[in-house]
Every structure is written in C-alpha cells, then in structure tokens.
Design brief:
By secondary structure, the protein is of the alpha/beta class. It has one domain: Rossmann fold. Helix content is about 35%, strand content about 20%. The protein is built from nine helices and ten strands. The strands form two sheets. Strands 6-7-8-3-9-10 form a six-stranded mixed β-sheet, with helices on both faces. A four-stranded antiparallel β-sheet has the order 2-1-4-5, with helices on one face. β4 and β5 form a beta hairpin. α4 runs parallel beside α6. The protein starts with a helix and ends in a 22-residue tail after the last helix. The structure holds adenosine-5'-triphosphate and magnesium ion. Adenosine-5'-triphosphate (ATP) binds next to β1, β2 and α2.
Length: about 270
C-alpha cells in the first residue's frame, strides 16, 4: 500500500497494544416481543486486540448485528460491560457515545444506510460536518475518500444512481471519514455479487493493513479465508475459538482463491509534464 493510501485510511494514534480495541464482558441483550423472549446476545465475552481483522459468522438470526450494534454503542446491553480502547462505553452518557462514534469508530451498515437525497460526496461530507471539520478539510477529505474507493467521477451521483457495490463503497468512505481506529462492517458484501464483494473486501483489507481494527459480520466464505480470526455465533452465543459449523465447512472446502490485486484505485493523476 502506498504511503498516501495508508494515510487516507489509517486511524489516529493507535492505542497501546496491551489495551484491546474491544473488550466485551459477559454481555447480554434480550428482545421481548409479546410473550416471546429472544436472547439475541446471550452472555458473550470477546476481546479483540488492536489492529486485528475479525470476522463473525453465523446463521441468519444468530445475533451478529445485535452484537455489532452493542459494540458500537448503538444499542445498550441489559447486562455485562463493553470497553473500547479501555474505556467502558456501557457507562458512557449518550453525549460521550455520540463523540465516540464520531471520532473513534466507523460503522458500515448491512443495508448501506446512505441518505437518499444526498449525493455520494454529500453523504461522506455530512459525517465530517457532524464531527466539526471545517469547509476546506471537508472538501479535501471527501474528494480524497471518494477517490480512495474509486468513485471520484461519481461524487455527484445520488444513491439511486449508483450500483449496490458503488453504494457500499460510499458507505465505506463515509465510515472512514473521521479516521476511525475501529471499523465495524455489518455484512458489507452481503448484497453484492462475488466480484464486487471481493472489491469491497479488498478495501477493508487495506484499511486493516493501515492499522485499523476491523470487525465484520459475514456469510462470505471468501472473507472467512482472508481475515486474522473467525468466530461463530449460534443462538446468541459466541462459540469457542475454532468451533462451529460454518467455520468447519469453509475450512473443509477448497482453498479460497487468493485476494485479487487492489481493484479500487484512485484515478491516475495528470500526465507528467513534457
Ligand atoms: N429490534 C428487535 N426487536 C425484536 N427482536 C429483534 C430485534 N433485533 C433483532 N431481533 C431478533 O434478535 C435475533 C438476532 O438478530 P440479528 O439481527 O442480530 O441477527 P443476525 O445474525 O444479524 O442475522 P442476519 O444474518 O439475518 O443479519 C433475531 O432472532 C431477531 O429476530
Ligand atoms: Mg445481521
């Protein structure tokens, strides 16, 4: 990765290595639907070292999105504690959580989550505006990020004028806007064809190589083969390391193809003079 790309994706000063990026301790989240009780996350403990690329797999409904939302402070557990870089977010005020999401953490939603009336550039810029960046910084960083994800020429397009893969790339650009140290991506390749999914995954891989801790929920065997660590959820519980049907099936299958070369590149600059 070029120095420039590393600079665009890398988070701020990394936390000391001894402090895990994420430390969830005995966390539970239950939903009550009438008489039915759904234990979406059931006594989950999870430590993610800074800089690790972790994939969480599991059947639909196993609790992946619920767990990621808890880690991101988008939802509150009814019991247990969650620490991000050593700070307990389960005790944080809403104001502190908002600040955390603006500056420490980026989130890519399962369904992209772009604002439909805003262009690609405006969707990215909004994240910077909310974090208090000045006009010039917003313009420069937005352009830089859209080039990073290969969408410089699509900056003025609205989401409905973009393909699914392009929308997801805008969502990744937006999540990276404030140089998060932790990136959470909920099935970022779930709605994409395999080639486009591989491109998005390649992008996350580069983000990870820049030192950002990346946690993704996925069903994609390709992703499972190329991350640092895979954990499987089942009925709200996190299975012990190396256990689980999906992990076993993937590992028994044929070796996954190697990562493609970086498919998303900033457009070439102007030709050298002369
Ligand atoms: N807001 C909610 N209210 C009630 N039940 C919910 C809510 N959110 C999730 N659930 C339930 O919690 C369980 C876990 O859901 P979750 O979305 O975390 O699963 P998932 O593993 O992300 O599934 P998928 O792979 O389909 O995205 C499911 O049974 C779901 O129906
Ligand atoms: Mg989900």
């Amino acid at each position: 990765m070029s120095a420039r790309r590393a600079d665009v994706t890398a988070g701020g000063a990394p936390a000391p290595n001894t402090v895990p990026a994420v430390d969830a301790r005995d966390v539970s989240r239950t939903f009550h639907l009438g008489a039915e009780v759904v234990r979406a996350v059931d006594h989950v403990s999870l430590e993610v070292p800074a800089g690790q690329f972790l994939a969480i797999v599991g059947r639909s409904g196993s609790g992946k999105t619920t767990l990621l939302n808890l880690i991101a402070g988008l939802d509150h557990p009814e019991s247990g504690q969650i620490f991000l870089e050593g700070r307990e977010i389960t005790r944080s005020s809403d104001r502190e959580l908002t600040k955390l999401r603006r500056h420490t953490l980026g989130f890519v939603f399962q369904s992209f989550g772009l604002l439909p009336l805003l262009s690609a550039a405006e969707n990215v810029e909004l994240a910077l505006r909310i974090a208090g960046a000045g006009v010039r910084e917003r313009m420069e960083r937005t352009r830089e990020l859209l080039e990073l994800v290969g969408l410089g020429p699509r900056a003025d397009h609205r989401p409905y004028e973009l393909s699914g893969g392009e929308q997801q790339r805008v969502a990744v650009a937006r999540a990276l806007a404030n140089r998060p140290r932790i990136l959470i991506a909920d099935e970022p390749t779930g709605e994409l064809d395999s080639t486009t999914g591989a491109q998005i995954f390649q992008l996350l891989h580069e983000v990870s190589a820049g030192g950002v801790t990346v946690i993704t929920a996925t069903h994609d065997p390709f992703v499972i083969e190329h991350v640092d660590r895979v954990l499987e959820m089942s009925d709200g519980a996190l299975l012990p390391e190396g256990r689980g049907v999906i992990v076993a099936q993937t590992r028994q299958g044929q070796a996954a193809p190697p990562l493609p070369p970086p498919a998303i590149r900033p457009p070439a600059g102007p030709p050298p003079p002369g």
